[in-house]
Amino acid sequence: VQCGMCHDACPTHMHAPQYIRAIWEGKMEEAVRWIYRTNPFAHVCGRVCTHRCEDACSIGHRGEPIAIRWLKRYAMDAVPHERVKQIALADKVDTPTGKRIAVIGAGPAGLTAAYDLAMQGHAVTVFEAQPQPGGMTRYGIPEYRLPYDRLDRDIDVIRSAGVDIRCNVRIGRDVELDRLRAEHDAVLLALGLQQGRQTRIPNSENDKVFRSVDLLARITAGEPFELPRCAVVIGGGNVAMDVARSLARMQKQQYGRVDVVVTALEDEQHFLADAAEIKEAIDEGIVIHDRCGPQGCEIDADGKLVGLKTWKVLSIFDESLRFSPRYDEADETIFACDTVVEAIGQSADTSLLGEALTEALAWERGRLKVDADGRTSEPWLWSAGDCVRGPDVVHAVADGHRVAASIHAVLTGTERTT
Fold it and tell me: Which one-letter DSSP state was computed for residue 141?
């Protein structure tokens, strides 16, 4: 454990060897102290982190790696919440700096940056369009994987540091971005990928074709919808498994059976989802078909969705490794269903920026271009998280630390000059 390979592999460079040793010695509060030095989303990452540390674990080369993610969860659950707050806030600066920072988006990146900046004495206000903070960790991850009371504990620590979180505030509608710029010394844009990408296959505009993020948000919010009796999910990533398992559990409760199929372009050995997620999906009665390319939704004479047509995938990328699937048209399958869910990726809604700022900013492949410290081409605006790096909680936390350090350096005049 003391080799430190887990520390080097973690995007936040968590002190895993130290907190594992503290757990081994029975010193849970010491473990929490080490955890909070690099990760204010400790309960969240103790459950849904992509655990790069375990992939790098030297012990894993001889067998099973140390369960570093679960040990983090174990330590956090072992210490009373009020004591966790005392430990986490022990090093907070008492003297305010007089600087004000606005953060747009209350996901892991935005709240991590807000926590760091508040701990350094800055006044931080976070603006969140959704009714509750948490971003895509709340509205994109099912509660069976991430109990929201544990997410709330992480957020409570951040609030206790002095971070002002204002929910149900949409920038561009309730508050203008120009006003935030005028009233704050720095602005951080930390948007999640809340828009689902579409396949745009024939008949996918049918009202029984859903985007995964929309459906997961409705499930989280407890909004009623007609539960499908048979559903097909397009996609092979963790989000596809999340929505498939959520529907399967609801079907089991309401109908007493499961009828959910997952189809993906990749062969099963190359699915983007975690192996554990795939295994658990199968255990719950979900049927997975690999190498299936969606070609169109089948609609009957009354306009009702009755199936999804797929062709067998021969290859996904061309010789230049560009996305260019090839299919065997003779190998066709029609999956009967009354609902199709597209889980093929997400994008951020950047419309709040407005036309003028969108034109002024630098972009790279549809994402905001930032430097190594998270600064955009506009000196007053930083950006971090999913809208810059893609969806991954622990990378979002690392991004939050990075931009907070940059903002603090600029506002205090300690910015690097070389």
Answer: S
Burial of 25 from C-beta contacts in 10 A (0-12 / 13-18 / 19+): exposed
Each residue's pLDDT tens digit, 264-282: 999 988 888 988 899 999 9
Query: How far is the CA of 58 from the CAs of 2, 4, 22, 51, 395, in angstroms?
Result: 10, 9, 19, 14, 22
How do 363-364 and 209-211 pair as beta strands? unpaired
- Contacts of residue 224, Cβ cutoff 8 Å, sequence gap at least 6: none
Give Dmax (Cα) for the chain. 71
- Which residue type, as a one-letter code, is found at position 120? Q
Long-range contacts of 318-325 (CB under 8 A, 24+ apart): 325/265, 325/293
Query: Where would I find the H helices in 124-194?
Result: 136-139, 148-160, 177-183
Q: Are 311 and 329 in contact (CB under 8 A)?
A: yes
CA-based torsion, 153, 158, 163, 168: positive or negative: negative
pLDDT, position 418: 47
Q: Region 123-129: what's the mean pLDDT? A: 97
How far is Cα 265 from Cα 345, in angstroms, rounded to an integer?
A: 13
CA atoms in the 13 A half-sphere facing the CB of 79: 26
Whole-angstrom Cα distance, residue 45 to residue 195?
A: 23
Q: What are the pLDDT digits (tens) for 288-301?
A: 999 999 999 999 99
Reported as half-sphere exposure (CB side, CA atoms, 13 A), residue 330 has a value of: 0
Please give the model's pTM, rounded to 2 decimal places: 0.92
